[in-house]
Design brief:
The chain is an alpha/beta fold and 352 residues long. The protein contains 13 helices and twelve strands.
């Protein structure tokens, strides 16, 4: 594993199983220099365990960078559960996963990611304290504190990032009349599409679940295309909000939008694809910067100190951070992902 292409001096990588529930999981802790490693738990049908390991290593490093760039007192970690969430989920399986998290003694804080819900977080919380993304407790008469499903906050951060990218590229952050192509319409992508529509944007949508795409398109007066076409749509912005690796040797030459700003993690299949985007003149919003809204909400919930207003303020600041990255990339001639990586590693105290 130490020679694995995605290994970046990760502090710990834990494999765990539970025969009674069928749990097979990997937890990767990239860094705890800034605080406990925080990052979501993803449940996915990986082609093989090697693909799961690659995913969790890359995601954990991304969480270190994400938390650093968001100014959070958190390190970076991630968990993956191997299995089909439509067939293999059970409260007992997530309780077993919680027991694995608890053995780490607070070095890792888990939350929601692809294939995992608030209800699953509640099952995890029966066996560990180190969990966030739980359903909100009722709080009538009190100022609302952070908590709940983090995907709406992720979407709001992406909206701020899209506006920052438009402002940098065109001089105006106005969304009215802009054309945005959204790939992936789950919790993040669906919320983002609604926010864009409310701001006056014209939408083209794509999702593996065709029925979900058609329902949302009817709601938002949007066009639906398939996953291949969405990359080629001539739009102002392409917003990838599905799984990673969407920016690669095949897709980059076909891109129809001059801006890529979306919520998916690990959008670049390889780091060199960031250079390929820059060479094509495509402005790329580094994924772990623009999609930090969810972890900001998770941090506020875990600390138990931030109000909803404070979380919203920090989410809105994602646009300011991206503006700084875009300006430095233009000044230095470096691709935006390289600028962001260097800034993140400097904040963490890692060698640049």
């Amino acid at each position: 594993m130490f020679d694995h292409a995605a290994f970046d001096e990760h502090e710990h990588v834990h494999h765990a199983t539970d025969s009674a529930t069928g749990l097979r999981c990997i937890i990767a802790i990239h860094s705890t220099r800034l605080g406990p490693a925080a990052g979501g738990c993803r449940m996915w049908s990986y082609a093989n365990p090697g693909a799961a390991l690659t995913d969790v290593l890359r995601l954990a490093r991304g969480m270190s960078y994400k938390n650093a760039m968001a100014g959070l007192p958190l390190g970076g970690g991630k968990a993956v559960i191997l299995g089909d969430p439509a067939r293999h989920k059970s409260p007992a399986l997530f309780a077993a996963f919680g027991r694995v998290v608890e053995t780490l003694g607070g070095r890792y804080i888990t939350a929601e990611d692809v294939g995992v819900t608030e209800a699953d977080m509640s099952a995890i919380a029966t066996t560990t304290r180190h969990v966030a993304g739980l359903p909100r407790a009722s709080g009538a008469g009190r100022e609302q504190t952070a908590g709940g499903d983090p995907s709406p906050k992720t979407a709001r951060g992406i909206l701020a990032g899209i506006q920052a990218a438009l402002a940098h590229a065109t001089g105006s952050d106005a969304l009215s009349g802009r054309h945005v192509a959204v790939q992936g319409l789950g919790g993040v992508g669906g919320n983002l599409a609604r926010l864009l529509h409310a701001a006056g944007a014209r939408l083209t949508l794509a999702d593996l679940n065709g029925e979900r795409a058609q329902r949302l398109a009817a709601e938002l007066d949007a066009q639906v295309v398939d996953g291949e076409q969405i990359l080629r749509i001539e739009a102002d912005v392409f917003a990838p909000c599905a799984l990673g690796g969407v920016l690669n040797d095949d897709s980059i030459p076909a891109l129809g939008a001059p801006i890529v700003a979306g919520g998916a993690n690990n959008q670049l299949l390889e780091d060199r694809h960031g250079e390929a985007l820059a060479e094509r003149g495509v402005l790329y919003a580094p994924d772990y910067v623009i999609n930090a809204g969810g972890i900001i909400n998770v941090c506020g919930e875990y600390l138990g100190q931030w109000t909803e207003a404070e979380v919203d303020r920090r989410v809105a600041a994602i646009g300011d951070t991206l503006g700084e990255i875009f300006r430095e990339a233009k000044r230095s001639g470096r691709p935006t992902h390289r600028v962001a990586d260097a800034m993140a590693r400097q904040r963490i105290g890692l060698e640049v």
